[in-house]
Amino acid sequence: MKKVLIVEDDAEIVRLLEIHLTDLGCKVICAQQGDEGLRKAINENPDLIILDVMLPEMDGIEVCQKIRANNITSPIMMLTARSEEIDKVLGLEVGADDYLTKPFSVREFIARVKAIFRRQKMEETSPASTTNPKLMQFDVLSINIEMRKVLLDGQKVELSPKEFELLVLLSSNPGKSFDRTQLLNMIWGYDFQGYEHTVNSHINRLRSKIEPDMSNPKFILTTWGVGYKFNEELAEA
């Protein structure tokens, strides 16, 4: 049974989402305030967090930021009002994985949730060990794609879904430079201006978790005037 945390102060929306999530076989936990949502995100270990931007006590942007700061890697779907374009950008930059604009259709909501659960099921059903796992090793950095597991000097690194996808894409193509628009389209699928900074924010968070020296990156390099690439010298070592 999947556990879903809804952080939303609109009782009607909560009721609607709870009904449909329950129909999907989910256990639903609710919070009406931002600080309450943060506590439950930390204590309940949800499989999915549905987070409204406009919340009392602590807004959804700050909640999302603090969730990621606590190394909680659960997928986060943010809910934003149609006029809150800036909040969509900020939400993605601080670590949200997806968003829905209010008012949204129940069908679209269910489709998004099912897609997230399908990805999680693929991860869970991957064998604990295989004779030929999709394993990449770059110096002290180990990336197991099937297990969605990253080790640095033998220590597990907690990455959000988008951080992991970025790392896999770059490390699977060492030496190839990707511009921000390419990365945005390939990882998020959003093709419009204003969201490129989302890539920068995720790259910075990823670097903070795997780079020994943020001021002199070893794994993810900046290609000036273009974007980012994975250090091809490590792939050749």
Write the layout of secondary structure elements.
Layout: E1 3-7, H1 11-23, E2 27-31, H2 34-44, E3 48-52, H3 60-69, E4 76-81, H4 85-93, E5 98-102, H5 106-124, E6 135-138, E7 141-144, E8 149-152, E9 155-156, H6 161-171, E10 178-179, H7 180-188, H8 196-210, E11 220-223, E12 227-230, H9 232-236
Parallel strand pairs: 1-2, 1-3, 3-4, 4-5
Antiparallel strand pairs: 6-7, 7-8, 8-9, 10-12, 11-12
Helix pairs in contact: 2-3, 4-8, 6-8, 7-8
Class based on secondary structure composition and strand pairing: alpha/beta
Low-confidence stretches: 126-133
From the alpha carbons, calculate the radius of gyration and give it in angstroms.
18 Å
- In percent, how helical is the residue content? 40-55%
Mean pLDDT, nearest integer? 87
Short description:
With 237 residues, this protein is of the alpha/beta class. Helices cover 43% and strands 21% of the residues. The radius of gyration is 18 Å and the shape is globular.
Describe this structure in words.
- This protein is of the alpha/beta class.
- Helix content is 43%, strand content 21%.
- The chain contains nine helices and twelve strands.
- The strands form three sheets. It has a five-stranded parallel beta sheet with strand order 2-1-3-4-5, with helices on both faces.
- Helix 2 runs parallel beside helix 3 and helix 6 crosses helix 8.
- The chain is globular.
- It starts with a strand and ends with a helix.
- About 3% of the residues have low confidence.
